[in-house]
Amino acid sequence: MIRRIVTDPVFLARKSEPASEADMGTAADLEDTLRANLDCCVGMAANMIGAHRRIIVFFAGTVPVVMFNPRVVCGTGRYETEESCLSLGGSRKALRWHKITVAYMDRWFRPREGTFEGYTAQIIQHEIDHCDGILI
Length: 136
Hints:
The protein has three helices and five strands, in the order H-H-E-E-E-E-E-H. The protein is α+β, with helices and mostly antiparallel strands. It has a five-stranded antiparallel sheet. The protein is globular. It starts with 8 loop residues before the first helix and ends in a 5-residue tail after the last helix.
């Protein structure tokens, strides 16, 4: 189901709780909502649709990637960039890693670890910030 995008900074600044297998429906709604906003959005976190759960989704090419409880375990190549967000107007500066390793649970709730770089790594870091209540 496509959900409304939350724009309340007080709500978005609250840290998300760990996700569980009971949150599969939220992940599906998150993916549907991202698909509906692909013209202006490249990734989403669950708090953007009103759920304080550690779930993110983004596209790797044409394939949607869902991550439950993602966390960056390693990063290299720190740089400063400017980002915008569907939930917040304008753009802001952010520090990012060029290459990251992320530990997470996949859409079948199996533990995974993946290495990402460039723009994909930037998207993941932005969405993890959402999970941590960091407003970008």
